[in-house]
Q: What sequence folds into this?
């Protein structure tokens, strides 16, 4: 009986719609790892376009994985503290362990 009353009222329908919108937003908010992301994955982050994504990838290939989000800010022109916070809130993150670079540094290889 309560369920019937819930769906008869406009407020009940409004709550259902709001719940679906919030669930959809949470589903789409996918975290992107800075050290493993492709150009396309980086572009999914609000505030990163094709040029910025390409610069991030090029710098990562040139100087190695990013050690922190601050490292990203230091190495990429145009990403300051304010923009960095926005990128972080949009899902950009850094994994706790950077990807292994055994292929790039043969001294670290273990057999």
A:
């Amino acid at each position: 009986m309560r369920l019937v009353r819930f769906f008869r009222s406009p407020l009940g329908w409004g709550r259902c719609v709001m719940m679906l919108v919030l669930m959809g937003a949470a589903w789409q908010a996918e975290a992107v790892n800075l050290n493993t992301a492709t150009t396309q994955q980086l572009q999914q982050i609000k505030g990163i376009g094709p040029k910025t994504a390409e610069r991030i990838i090029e710098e990562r290939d040139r100087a190695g994985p990013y050690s922190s989000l601050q490292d990203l800010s230091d190495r990429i022109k145009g990403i300051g503290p304010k923009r960095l916070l926005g990128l972080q809130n949009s899902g950009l993150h850094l994994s706790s362990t950077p990807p292994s670079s055994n292929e790039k540094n043969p001294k670290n290889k273990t057999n």
